[in-house]
Structures are given as structure tokens and as C-alpha cells.
Amino acid sequence: MPAAPATGPPDFIGVGTQRSGTTWWFRTLLGHPQIRAPRGRRKELHYFDQFCGRELTAADVAEYHELFPRKPGQIAGEWTPRYMHDFWTPRLLARAAPEAKLLIMFRDPIERFRSGVPHRLSRTPDARMEAATADAIERGRYATQLRRVLAYHDEAKLLILQYEKCVADPAGQYRRTLEFLGVGTEHRHEELERRRGTTQAAQKKPLWGDLMDGLLAALEPEVAELAAMTQEIDVALWKNFAHLAPENVPA
């Protein structure tokens, strides 16, 4: 008789970032026979959002573990992009799933901003434009968010992916992700090169000069710090920040 699925802490958790191709990448991972989604096949559990208002208890941790059934030889995980954005969550993840491997996908933060604002407004039509804009800026402060994660999680259990690299070399980055997760790397996903997820391309608007200048002033320091924190980010692939790449910085 086949072994019944067992539950327990997730083997991996995607923690960032919104509007950076995480739906595409998570669905691609689920095409692997050794990788399982949470109960109900939801990508984003948002389980820890609530603990800005109350304490995480042992019962809450046990409830979280019940969301990850898998059979022997399988791993299970989720991907909620706001986990690294919320300052209280990285610490709670270390309590609830101390052995879990963490995945982060970064995208050019201005392109992420251009997608994030219409995404927020489509989900919450009553939101004020300035609130959606402020939220989108904060979600692009990648270095600040990465510092939060590294304060509670060892760098060795963190995989940083760059959306632009995944688009350019999906097979190579997919194999790299599988190696990190510790599953077989020979599996070929038939739809790997077909990016899926909700697109906001039709809703994106050109950025006028004053707004672009403000975005660059707010985000350039974050991009520069992120590039100094990890070698996994090729700033030259971010068209809005390619001028920060070492080969483009005057000596």
C-alpha cells in the first residue's frame, strides 16, 4: 500500500518579491514530480500576515505545518511574495520553519513598480493612488528587505534569483533552483518557457520625468547596496539601473 502523505514544516518558502515572476516560477516548480504545493494547491498562503496584530503561538505553528502534506521522497512549500516585505515575518519564519530553504526572485525595481501599482489598484479599486504608489516603492527596497531576511536566516539556505536571468535562460535557472532544493535535476518542464501569471502590461503607463527622477533617487541606493550584498544580481540586466553596473561606473 502506498505511504500516506505526512505533514510537517515546509521544505522551502518563497518570500519575495511581488510582480517579479514568482507565479510563473512556482508553477514551473510544481511541474516537478518531487515538489508539492500546500494543501489546496495555493501558491500564496499569507499565513504570517495576521501576526502583526497578535502573537504567533505553538498552536499556530502546528496549524501551519498541517498545510504541507507530501509523500516520502517529495518536498513541499509555498511562495508568498510579501513575507520579506513585512518586517515581522522573517523572524516568525525562523520559528515556524527553521530548516526551510528560502527563495527570492528580484526584478528591475522600476519595472516591478510599474506592474505593482496597477496590480494593487485592480485588487483594491478603492485604494488611493498615493497609497498604491507608496506601497509599490516600499516593495522595491530590496536591500532593506534582504537585510531583514539575513538577520534571522543563514545565507547558505537562501537562493536569490533574478527574473531577467530566468527569462533569458529558463532551463539553466530552473536546474539551479532544483539543485538548491535537493531534488532531481533531470526533469524537463514542457511549459518552462511560457511565462504565466496575471500581467499588467495593458495597464502600465509611461513614467514622466519628475516621477522617474523620484524613483531613481529612492531606489538607486537600494540597488547599489543589493549588488554589494550578493553576486547573484547582474545590475546590467536592469535597464533602469544599468548605469550602476561596474563596467558603466566611471573609474
Describe this structure in words.
The protein is an alpha/beta fold and 251 residues long. The protein has a single domain, classed as Rossmann fold (3-Layer(aba) Sandwich), CATH 3.40.50.300. It has helices spanning 22-30, 58-65, 89-96, 109-123, 129-139, 142-150, 163-168, 170-181, 209-229, and strands at 12-16, 35-36, 75-79, 101-106, 158-162. Helix 6 (142-150) runs parallel beside helix 9 (209-229). The termini are far apart. The model has no long low-confidence stretch (mean pLDDT 91).
Question: What is the overall pLDDT average?
Answer: 91
Number of structural units classed as domains: 1
Query: Helical element count?
Result: 9
For the record, give the distance between the C-alpha atoms at the N and C termini, rounded to a whole number.
67 Å
Question: Which CATH architecture?
Answer: 3-Layer(aba) Sandwich
Structural class: alpha/beta
Helical fraction: 25-40%
Largest sheet: 5 strands, parallel
Count of individual beta strands: 5
Q: What is the fold's blueprint, element by element?
A:
Blueprint: E1 12-16, H1 22-30, E2 35-36, H2 58-65, E3 75-79, H3 89-96, E4 101-106, H4 109-123, H5 129-139, H6 142-150, E5 158-162, H7 163-168, H8 170-181, H9 209-229
Parallel strand pairs: 1-3, 1-4, 2-3, 4-5
Index terms:
251 residues; Rossmann fold; five-stranded parallel β-sheet; 9 helices; 5 strands
Question: What's the gist of this structure?
Answer:
Helix content is 39%, strand content 9%. It has 251 residues and is α/β, with parallel strands linked by helices. It has a five-stranded parallel sheet.
